[in-house]
Specification:
five-stranded antiparallel β-sheet; alpha+beta; about 30% helix; 9 strands
Length: about 160
């Protein structure tokens, strides 16, 4: 394979349809890499003793995509050997057990891809304008992301 045929790529998508782990992980596979690390964030059925029915996500889409691109640039500076990065986030209703976010990173060796995936999810939660609403049996709650930098600013 010609080196030019496998130039580093970033795949970013915010979508309302069900996310596919296979689809996202296949985007980052490269013959130059021996590692593909994947993080899958799923909807759980409980929170602090309450039964969760489903989640709903909203985003400031253009800003969210811009912030995710910044995360990808940061990853490439911190881990130059990273080949491909995929960040997919679901919007709208996400039923129990389905994926809300899938992040996949490929690199020649596992350490870089594992560190990069961890950095991606932590930074996404801290800086990307995506909001989560938990729907319970009797009520709902917009969840403040405790990692989010604007949640910690003085009021």
């Amino acid at each position: 394979m010609d080196e030019n045929e496998d130039t580093p790529k970033d795949f970013i998508k915010l979508k309302s349809e069900k996310l596919s782990v296979d689809e996202v992980s296949e985007l980052v596979v490269s013959p130059y890499c021996g590692a593909v690390s994947v993080f899958i964030g799923t909807t759980r059925n409980n929170f602090e003793g309450k039964k969760v029915i489903h989640l709903e996500y909203e985003a400031y889409t253009s800003m969210a995509e811009t912030e995710i691109k910044k995360i990808c640039r940061d990853v490439r500076q911190k881990w130059p050997s990273v080949k491909h990065i995929a960040v997919y986030h679901r919007l709208g209703v996400v039923p129990i057990t389905e994926a809300s976010v899938i992040i996949a990173v490929s690199s020649p060796h596992r350490a870089e891809s594992l560190e990069a995936v961890t950095y991606c999810i932590n930074t996404l939660k801290a800086s990307v304008p995506i909001w989560k609403k938990e729907i319970y049996e009797d009520e709902y709650s917009w969840k403040e992301n405790k990692e989010c930098f604007w949640a910690n600013s003085e009021k």
